[in-house]
Amino acid sequence: MNDIFSACRDGNLMAVKVWLDNTENDLNQGDDHLFSPLHWASRYGHNTIVEMLLSRGARVNSANMGDDTPLHNAAQMGRLDVIHKLIREKAEVNALNEHGNTPLHYACFNNHPASADELVSCGALVSMCNKKGETPLARARPELARRLAELARSKGQDLKTKIPFSENVWKGTTRTRAKNGTMNHENVDLRQLNLKGKIASSHSGETWKGRWGQTEILAKILAVKNITSRISRAFHEEYLRLRIFSNPNVLPVMGIVNSKNLATISPYASYGSLYHVLHESTTTVDQSIALRFAIDIASGMQFLHSLEPMIDRLLINSKHIMIDEGMTCKVNMGDAGFSFQPPGKLYNPAWMAPEALQKKSNEINRKSADMWSFSILLWEMATREVPFSDLANMECGMRIALEGMRVSIPPGVSPHLMKLMRICMNEDPAKRPKFDMILPILQKMVV
Fold first, then answer.
1. CA–CA distance, 69 with 93 (Å, rounded to integer)
2. Is the pLDDT of residue 26 over 90?
């Protein structure tokens, strides 16, 4: 047993779990041919490992060197249970690989009737041509071809016209990262990042969009003027705790620039911050999406609160939550503070608990303070308003801390959500719930 890829091929569940429990391990990395752990587990039909990888944030539509997705691998081998799981997690049933083959092509070519039936039932197109002009039915056995054609017609597919191959029919969400793509990058040169434009600025630094090799990234250049050897050493030591790849609702720091500039490097999130989506973009966030966002954030925070010691320099607000191409919210580790930076308590006071504005950080319960911040996020998503937007930061912080100023919950908010907000915003920090307590409540609201 040499690595995670061997463990996934061999079905060694314990080895996979131990590997995943190390937060620095990137479960979306690939081997020499860019097969991810999910590719191998899907190919060999290890259902429990597939389930575990997906629950930890494995990208269901990632592509290997030949543009095969895990669903291609499962269909090629007739792994019906795995196909069920992948499709449930929104695997693209008509994904094209480098030959133009879809998963249905492989299920038909290799005579896996049950898998082919499942794919067509879930929307796989029987008339889609590969680069050779072959449809999945072209090389299927006659009986299977007839059955699939009937099933496709019953699903409303037009079988009269073949769908020609096109490079633009479907593009996978991302190519699997090379296995060394997230390892030992504490000395990246800022010039390697191909920065394209500044997208945010705050007291702690500037955030730029860029590209690192084949990966789109966010680079946060820290506002540190005098970089001493002590600061450089602290930056490297503290950054290691931010390399969290093992949770789907945490955005890791992949690497850092540690020379004349200090910068963190994180994966790019195509929708930007939650703040941007709620207040600056045209993206529609209805109640069901808002609840999904809340579950994502609560899941990420539950995980971060389980770490020992806890990462205590990450203040939760909508500017520190990023949203990726799958509309999944992720707590951004790139926004965590470092010991050599000023605390900056009043930069985003509207989201901060009263006690966090009144006391030193070592005098408060960080978990309870985070729960208050989460309640403000719930309010923000329910109202689509910026809390206390009419006040300057200093005045806002002073009035929350000293005058008891609080957000008011307007009419029209779901009574269940209103009750949850009030519970999470209890004036007594000891009476606020933990994230593992409110997750089941949020999940019931979605049903």
1. 10
2. no
Q: What six digits make up the tokens of 318?
A: 């909508």
Nearest to 220 by CA among 235, 233, 204: 204
Domains of the chain (ranges, CATH numbers): 4-174 (1.25.40.20), 181-267 (3.30.200.20), 272-446 (1.10.510.10)
Would you list the DSSP string of 322-366?
A: EE-TTS-EEEEGGG---TTS---TTSSGGGS-HHHHHS-GGGS-H
Euclidean distance between the first and the last CA atom of the chain, given in angstroms as a whole number = 42
CA–CA–CA angle 12, 14, 17 (5° rounding): 110
pLDDT tens digit sequence for 414-442: 899 999 999 999 999 999 999 999 999 99
The owner of tokens 């997705």 is: 69
Q: What is the DSSP string of 144-185?
A: HHHHHHHHHHHTT---SS-B---TTS---SEEPEETTTTSS-
CB 425 within 8 Å of CB 406: yes
149 has which bridge partners? none
Residue 115's nearest CA partner among 69, 146, 80, 160 is: 80
**Which H or E element spans position 197?**
strand 197-202
Q: Which of 212-216, 285-289, 435-439 has the lowest mean pLDDT?
A: 212-216
Chain position carrying tokens 């504005």: 357
Nearest to 158 by CA among 186, 111, 126: 126
* Whole-angstrom distance, CA of residue 383 vs CA of residue 385: 5
Closest CA to 95 of 154, 42, 16, 31: 42
> Residue 20 in contact with residue 57, Cβ under 8 Å?
no
355 phi and psi angles, rounded to 5 deg: -65, -30
Report d(CA 358, CA 403) in Å as an integer: 12
pTM of the model: 0.73
The answer to whether 408 and 418 have CB atoms below 8 angstroms apart is no
Q: Please state, in angstroms and rounded to a whole number, the distance separating the CA atoms of residues 254 and 184.
A: 9
Strand partners, 262: 258
- Tens of pLDDT, residue by residue over 290-327, are 999 999 999 999 999 998 888 878 889 999 999 988 89
Number of H helices, E strands in the chain: 17, 13
Q: CA 300 to CA 292: how far, in whole Å?
A: 12
Give 158's DSSP letter. -
Helix (H, G, I), strand (E, B) or coil at 253: coil
Token pair 């690595």 in the structure block, residue: 3
* Whole-angstrom distance, CA of residue 39 vs CA of residue 24: 20
Q: SS3 of 199, please?
A: strand
